[in-house]
Task: structure prediction
Amino acid sequence: MDLFEGVQLNNIRQYQEFFQEYSFERKEIIFSPGKYPKSIFLVLKGKVRIFLSYPQGKEFTLSVLQPGDVYSGHTRAFGQALSAVKLAMIPINVFKDMLISVPGLVFGLVTVLGDALKGSIDVIESLVFEEAGVRLTSLIREWAQQSGTSTDEGILITLDFTREEISSMIGSSRQTLATLLKELSSAGLIEIKKKTLIVKDLEGVTNFFK
Result:
């Protein structure tokens, strides 16, 4: 859900001068821990990967922000552009004033944050209770339901992520990911092309590693 869905634009026009817009290219790091501790980010265009970084170059993806999502700069996570990204940066104190003077924003914020919390809980549960194969098929199912396009061949998913990024999302190595994808492909459940993935049997994919 978009944060401003259902909100009259005239009600927030007085705050426009405080919005600073920034553009980023794919792969560019947007923010790092502690860089913008007093700012709120609003994604206007593109996708932003939120991830943790550990020694020896290990990374773990927590979430992927879509247009309309908000994020606070006070966390210890990194933000990276997965595509061409445009976002607005808003000082926290201004954002607080907006919530007070425009009550409709509160509903939007609660909904957006609720979706983000659900996504975080799903990630934690999958890491604790599920094997890498199940985490991968759950991710494919989520992509298919959220952004997949039905075609004669199956559900077409445009891949915005590299193999390294997908590995980070399921908490595995790139080699493990390659093995899992090969198993799904050999079973005739998916077909992988350059930047797309075709799901030929969504239920079959979902249950393959269970």
